[in-house]
Amino acid sequence: MWIKICGNTTLEDACFAAEAGANAVGFVFAPSPRQVEVDVVREITARLPQQVEKYGVFVDAGFDEIVSTVSNAGLTGVQLHRSPEALPARLREHFARSQVRIGILGVLHYKDHELEFEQQLVKLGGNDALDGVFDGVLVDSSTARAVGGTGTTFNWLAAQASFQRAAPHLRLIAAGGLSPENVRHAIQTLRPWGVDVVSGVESAKGKKDPIRVRAFIRSAQEAAAEILSNVSK
Questions:
Q1: Which residues pair with 55 in a beta bridge?
Q2: Which of 112, 140, 196, 209 is catalytic?
Q3: What domains sit in the chain, N to C, each tagged with a CATH number?
Q4: pLDDT by residue (tens digit) across 65-124?
Q5: How many CB atoms sit inside 10 A of residue 24's CB?
Q6: Which entry of 6, 13, 135, 196 is annotated as an active-site residue?
């Protein structure tokens, strides 16, 4: 189970997430209570273990801004919200030429209208131009007030059914309203490749609660282990 603790603003929080077993940490570069500057992130990523993935979260960002931020902040991955259709492939091509391995996550917001959600999945999973571009598709809740970190869940059962029908080959990363209290149920229902959490492990916006971070990671790992054990029986 791939686990990302996102919305980090301090070295202390990012280091604790890594020590607690997170596979990746995330930093928000878009306007947000959790927004961080490139210089701050560079100081943080330089002190994180090499094996921990460092993702930048971008909203409506252009090619030049993303490429510059990846280089200057020491990122190993990008999470793209509301990006132009051609941007992910352009980024993949650019970093491949530079011989830099960068993870690229696309983001879909689940809406109660299942057909619309499935059409978005088909577009991502069946578009030749996007084939092999994304390392995963992060599914978040859809709200009018924010593109992430909303603390709001979505219909996991319906979303899982839509994924199986429309794009079972894509790596699903569950986000939106996850917490130590519900991540086990979310994993059992959605059967995702990974999970992503922001507000569910905070004591305040932009400040992580170590107890909740550790509990979230432990619950996610235990849920994934249970599923694997049941499959092998």
A1: 26, 77
A2: 140
A3: 2-232 (3.20.20.70)
A4: 999 999 999 999 999 998 888 999 999 999 999 888 899 999 998 876 677 788 888 777
A5: 23
A6: 6
